[in-house]
Amino acid sequence: MEQNLFVYNTLSRKKEKFVPLHPPLVGMYVCGPTVYSDVHLGNCRTYISFDLIFRYLTYLGYKVRYVRNVTDAGHLEGDAGDEGEDKIEKKAKLEHLEPMEIAQKYTIGFREVMQILNILPPSIEPTATGHIIEQIELVKLILQNGYAYEVDGTIYFDVEKYNKTQDYGILSRRNLEDLLANTRDLGGQEEKRGPLDFALWIKAKPGHLMKWPSPWGLGFPGWHLECSAMSNKYLGKQFDIHGGGLDLVPTHHTNEIAQNMAACHTNPAKYWIHTNMLTVNGQKMSKSLGNSFLPHELFTGQNSILNKGYSPMTVRFFILQAHYRSTLDFGNEAMQASEKGFKRLMNAFTLLDKLEASASGEVEIAPLLQRCYDAMNDDFNSPVLIAELFEASRIVNSVYDKSLRIDEKNLSLLKQLMHDFIVDVLGLKNEQAAGDDLPNVMNMIMELRKDAKQNRDYATSDKIREGLQKIGFQLNDGKEGMTWSKL
Ligand code: AMP
Ligand code: ZN
Q1: The whole model's pTM is what?
Q2: Considering 254, 275, 296, which residue would you say is the last residue of a domain?
């Protein structure tokens, strides 16, 4: 097991040596999606980044328990996630469906996208609605310890009281005075004692659908609470890594730490890892800003900002070409460059099997292998790793065209290096050979065409059918729905 891994910890704002609490076990919790709409490419960036981390830790020999929740209740609309309507319930009412139908639909869609992007499933994917009892127990503990108060069936966390003995801004590095000076007025939430207080448990208003009995009456848990309850349940009071997007630092993760400290007297995670944002023209990709697009729009090119479609592995490669802590701006030119780069890498990868060893060689692979490890050990630096893999590709090409000789031992090391780092660590696969994913991709395309037809956008629906025909696929509109076959 490699002992020289350094990870950037948001808590200390430094790269720290990675020393797990109970090696070889590693506990990692990552905040999962709120399943009220399709995941956009920005969300995918975060999940690809943690997939890289999960894969590398596993590759090093750690036994990783990776927990990524599904938020299927309690995430309200306001910036902090605890004001306004429940996101899932709002969508359910709009579409005349049960909230659980909405959660089911988008959970399935989410898993499909994860699979297409070759993101490994986590070890446990717990849901908020499946852990109401654990959340109620946690609220009881926080109340008992004196850090929360009840107002008419709603329980609030008392931030100012907590900050008297603890540092509420430990993760965000903001002090309470500044935070208080910058908060809006209580706007309809006068029942809170302080403007920074947040709801742990919320009384269900008349007409609210997703509600459960509790010692404080019918209600539902707050969004921040579920992650504290579920990480605690599956990974213990303290575990190794807690992750999510950088946008979760000021509120969601800040509140999670406060809850865990108030209930269990410990910061839940030793290392807090945050991924930077995917941007479009410098602006964070987000559903509310209207600049987001869906992975399958990217695969098919069906979005006005795209010149053409890109394969799922090109998208994954594009994302991995930036370090997870840098911002990454989406653009057609950058995508085209990634498409070329990915092809170059995969061409070399397929040539590997055709290489012949010579009796004596002119190249040593061990230093290159060490540089691959060094890149990943330096806070999972995938762009530097990819640069080293291009160096490996150059060697492959030179051996193939006989301008460089390699001996047996180094050839087998080169094959192992390319396989380990491209397939196992970066999670890239050769799409030419990846027929397994075709049904998923076709389902997505058919879904798009169905939407187009429903919107009477016949131009798009015809374009999809004709486009597929050109590359050898026939779509059949039958009574049972759409099916496809190879021509
Ligand atoms: P949400 O479903 O909005 O709670 O987001 C799910 C995850 O995606 C969270 O960890 C967010 O921090 C992350 N996320 C949201 N937008 C972006 C973005 N533009 N780039 C990278 N990660 C994002
Ligand atoms: Zn969370």
Answers
A1: 0.89
A2: 275
For the chain, the average pLDDT equals: 93
Quick one: which atom of ligand 1 is closest to the CA of 34?
Answer: 2
Among protein residues, the one whose CA lies closest to atom 18 of ligand 1: 42
- Cα 244 to chain centroid, rounded: 7
Domain identity same for 283 and 248: no
Task: Let me know whether 219 and 338 are in one domain.
Answer: no
Q: Residue 285 sits in which domain range? A: 279-425
Which protein residues are within 6 Å of ligand 1, measured from CB? Answer: 31, 33-34, 42-43, 45-46, 244-245, 247-248, 275, 277-278, 284-286
Q: How many other C-beta atoms can be found within 10 angstroms of the C-beta atom of residue 487? A: 9
Q: Which is higher by pLDDT, 433 or 395?
A: 395
The 10s digit of each residue's pLDDT in 272-300 is 999 999 999 899 999 888 899 899 889 98
Angstrom distance (rounded) from CA 47 to CA 487: 36
3 state DSSP class of 478: strand
Q: Which atom of ligand 1 is nearest to the CA of 292?
A: 19
Asked if 382 and 323 touch (Cβ cutoff 8 Å), the reply is: yes
- pLDDT score at 1: 45
Residues 232 and 286 in one domain: no
Same domain, 102 and 118: yes
